[in-house]
Amino acid sequence: MLDRAAEPVAWHAISWAEALAEADSDGVAGLSAQEVEQRLRRCGPNALPEPRRRSLLALFFRQFQSPLIFLLFVASGAALAFERPSDALVIVGVVLLNALVGSFQEGRAERSLESLRRGAAVKARVVRDGKEGLIEARGLVPGDLLLLAAGDAVPADARLLDGTALETGEAALTGESLPVAKESTPLALDTPLADRRNLLFAGTHVTSGRGRAVVVATGLATEIGRIATLAEAAVEPKTPIERRIAQLGRYVVVAAAALFGTVTALGAWRGLALGEIVMIAVSQVVGMIPEGLPVAVTIALAVGVQRMARRGAIVRRLAAVEALGSTTVICTDKTGTLTRNEMTVAAIWLPSGREIEVTGGGYEPSGAFLEAGCELDPGADAELAAILIAGALCNDAQLLPPDAPELRWNGIGDPTEVAMLSAAAKAGLRPLALRERFPRRAEIPFDPAAKMMATQHEGAGEPRVFVKGAPELVVDLCRCGEAQEGELNGALRAAAERLASRALRVLAVATVPDAAIDGAQGFRALRGRGVLLGLIGQLDPPREEVEEAVRACRRAGIRTVMVTGDHKHTACAVARSLDIAREGDIALDGPELEQLSDADLDARLERASVFARVHPSHKLRIVEAFQRRGDVVAMTGDGVNDAPALVRADVGVAMGITGTEVAKQAARIVVTDDNFATIVAAVEEGRLVYQNLKKVIFYLMSTSIPAVIVLLGALVLGGAPPLAAVQILWINLVTEGVVTVNLIMEPAEGDEMRRRPVSRGEPLLGREALRRAAVIVPVIAISILGWFLARTALGVPLREARTETFALLAVCAWFNVLNCRSESRSAFSLDVLRNPWLVSGLVIGNALQLAVIYWGPLRELFHTEPIELREFVWIGLVGSCVLWAEELRKWWRRRGERPPLAPA
After folding, report:
1. Cβ(450)–Cβ(523) under 8 Å?
2. Which terminal residue of the chain, N or C, has fewer Cβ atoms less than 10 Å from its own Cβ?
3. Using DSSP, how many helices (H) and how many strands (E) does the chain show?
4. pLDDT tens digit sequence for 40-53
């Protein structure tokens, strides 16, 4: 009985019979249902190591990482020490609210990823109790008997028992881009993992042939399970927003300390009591701290998460939303991301010299056959029908119709063979009916060395063999006279080159009439007897929406770079068709990349638009090279060995359909449809998030700083503080708060993808923000301080004057939020109703402000007095000055030259 606790078995070094005995399994009947149940209980489900589920408490404490949070705790402690418990509780309440929102959203993202994982469950064909069946891979146990064929995913580590031309793609595990031929004979004990050709590994897939194997390891015990934890040790770089928030936090800490010292010194100079001095200083420090910023950042990112989820991108870390919006380079795979990953017959060349174009993309059997622009009737064209029938019969794949009208056609097996079935169906031929009419009697499975496949069929009175494979090898099987041979070879070679120049994968198809397959002789027995039926050119068509998405990236100042394991010629053709590669661009392949030093690679990056024939290990070097240039890099990946590059990239993007679990765990974003256009849509959402974050930060700072200036001005001029500490706290947490979060919901202005990416070193408050603040801050400060001094000079009681000043600061904040909806567009050109959240925030803010002034219990808490209605009219007029001043500045800016947009 196979026992996990026993000494590990060297499965590659023992025979297949010994492997069956060691696994205590039957090579014909497999395991019994009872035995499966017992082993499942003992070994657990066959699942890759899932990321450790972080508890709600861990997610909660993860949110306390901003310097602003720590500064708020200090301010809260100071307020509590000087017997201001209400102030302390409100500050702590805001911090806790931020942590709850952040932990809720990150937990929701994890749940979305789990749903994706469940929806992409791998299936496995097994023999149990002597019967073949299809089960979920999670239910596999050691000792299960696996049946594998071309196109199948290998669901667990297994020892091969027997196989026919079996090859697997192991790039996801070993980085080896070429398929690996498998054999069942024992190997030396010290054989390296990558050379253990009698073992099949979870996370790989069968590219050709078929085989039977016994499962030897599941779940954590598989090779892919053992290396999955390596990605956890990689250190993720901080995202741009995390760096900028940390930088802003440091600036605020320094400014708050300087402010505290200044206010304390001024109070001592004025002869105020120590307790009063410290409380005034604390209130100003609290006034200076944008308490709403942490929760605003969290909500902005959370809103971005939900918007991206609706567009097919699941965000695993909130900060990745903004990071994707700051991206300057997207390194993307080709197959399945830029293309449909559905091979399509695009052209057919016939020995008579005819060249036929086949329309339609993907596996759907919808399209036409065109010759010189005229549509053909395939049923009436014997030469065309012959090659289509041969392609459908010399074929191990299946073409599957969709289960629902909104779904796509699908295929099982080699995509090249599925494409041939689709082409036959386009011509009105029914592959299943053909196979019934011409049953297969023998075969020579595809042999990587021979690069051909042959099948023998009966029907129409005589046995017939069909062959497909590399053109130069198939034509070698065909008979013709010496004069004809040179002519045929020349015509075939010219046709193959024409098709290859269009980035088509070219296969030749031939028939050998009245022939039978000799297993011992193989293809040698067919040489000189074949009749060439023609060439078939296939391509993996680009997704229709990708070309416009690439152009949108170019307009946005984002470089799109193709990083693929495909051949350079094919990669360049696809890159040119999608406008990724332009005149003067270069392509580098894996061998060239390995010969370049870091300095040489850096020198070529500016013109490199395609990296071809790369191993997953090359991706990490490409990411680091772009980051040395100061780029913010998004990297796509789907394999286990992609994990280090996904972690190292500023934004790792895993594929939801083809991606391995390890890749999804390493990435910050998972794209559910493997579509490049979805990544670009997520970039647009990320830019909107960052744009709205900048609006919020500018609003908070431009509204908070005037309150500090007003206090300092009053102290210098010898007056009483214009605002009580609790009133400042109310403005910061409530009056500003009810519109701050709603400003996050501001819709796009429409030019997000025509702006240049935010540079890595750009601060949250850049030059443009400082120029705006130079207008807004003085206007608000002068309006408030002037009002307070004027009212007290007229003999208005201090409490009433403070109440009016308190109301004026709130009104200025509301007018300022209208300013902050756009840097350059007039507030009057932006329909306020396009953001109903902001309208509701303004309404709620007004209602709360009136309650503080007129409702008895709140009046006592906030030291206010009722204000006459006519005073509110004047307060509104004075408060609107900030709007008119900013409108004047925007008008002046629009008169000037607009900044250049990114090149198209």
Report:
1. yes
2. C
3. 33, 26
4. 998 888 886 555 66
Report pLDDT digits (tens) over 70-105. 666 776 776 677 666 766 676 676 667 666 765 665
Residue-level length of the chain: 904
CB neighbour burial string for 680-691, b if at least 16 within 10 angstroms, e if fewer: bbbbbbbbbbbb
pLDDT of residue 233: 47
Specify the range with the lowest mean pLDDT, choosing from 77-86, 395-404, 822-831: 77-86
Per residue in 166-179, pLDDT (tens digit) is 888 776 666 554 57
For residue 900, what is the DSSP state? P
Query: Per DSSP, what are the bridge partners of residue 478?
Result: 530
Q: Which of 333, 396, 566, 650 is catalytic?
A: 333
> Distance between CA atoms of 891 and 826, rounded to whole angstroms?
8
Kindly tell me the sign of the dihedral angle through the C-alpha atoms of 119, 121, 123, 129.
negative
Give the Cα separation of 193 and 53 in Å (integer): 31
Q: Structure pTM?
A: 0.65
CATH topology of domain 326-339+544-676: Rossmann fold (3.40.50)
The C-alpha R_g of the chain, in whole angstroms, comes to 35
Q: Which alpha helices (DSSP H) does 195-343 contain, by range?
A: 223-228, 230-233, 240-270, 274-288, 292-310, 319-325
The number of C-alpha atoms within 13 Å of 656 and in the hemisphere containing its C-beta is 25
- Assign domain 353-534 to its CATH architecture: 3-Layer(aba) Sandwich (3.40)
Residues of the chain with CATH 2.70.150.10: 11-52+124-233
Contacts 24+ apart (CB under 8 A), 254-258: 255/288, 256/71, 256/285, 256/288, 256/289
Catalytic residue at 333?
yes
- The residue whose two tokens read 């947490």 is 733
